[in-house]
Amino acid sequence: MDMKLVIAVVHDEDVEELTEQLGKSGFGATKLATTGTFLKQGNTTLMIGSERGKEDSVLDIIREVCRSRKQECTTPLMPSGATGVYIPCPMEVTVGGATIFVLDTDRFEKI
Ligand code: 2BA
């Protein structure tokens, strides 16, 4: 079967709803516990196999379910100019609803 592989990094909070909606539309998924390198916080990476031509339906479902969120974080400790003391600097980042890669597969088999 000619397959595409969708790899999606999503918020932990969206995973349950997302896998339920994917399942309802006939898409299987494998869930990996991952960590973002910038925030150093847990997120989830889903590997979703889809028949070629159906990958846009997978992306539509991800778009419907996954929300972006603002998250507080602190920058690495920065030296304060006046005192030379290292202080953490709070900042806000918008973590996207999902970071998605769509890959061609050479071969797909279930044994
Ligand atoms: P994190 O690496 O923990 O990044 C979380 C959020 O922090 C990012 O959201 C972005 O808004 C911000 N951010 C990341 N690097 C930054 C930097 N150098 N300066 C300022 N802000 C920065 P998203 O871009 O939506 O990414 C969410 C998660 O998706 C990431 O978590 C990472 O796990 C994954 N990701 C993002 N881009 C990726 C890529 N090119 N390849 C693989 N995974 C990626």
What does this structure look like?
It is a single chain. The chain has 111 residues and is an alpha+beta fold. The chain has one domain: Alpha-Beta Plaits (2-Layer Sandwich), CATH 3.30.70. The chain is 19% helix and 42% strand. It is built from 2 helices and 8 strands; from the N terminus they run E-H-E-E-H-E-E-E-E-E. It has helices at 15-24, 55-65, and strands spanning 3-10, 30-35, 42-51, 69-74, 78-79, 86-87, 90-95, 98-104. The strands form 3 sheets. A 4-stranded antiparallel sheet has the order 2-3-1-8, with helices on one face. A two-stranded antiparallel sheet has the order 4-7. The protein has a two-stranded antiparallel sheet with strand order 5-6. Helix 1 packs antiparallel against helix 2. It is elongated, with a radius of gyration of 18 Å. The model has no long low-confidence stretch (mean pLDDT 92). The site of ligand 2BA has 11 residues, from strand 7.
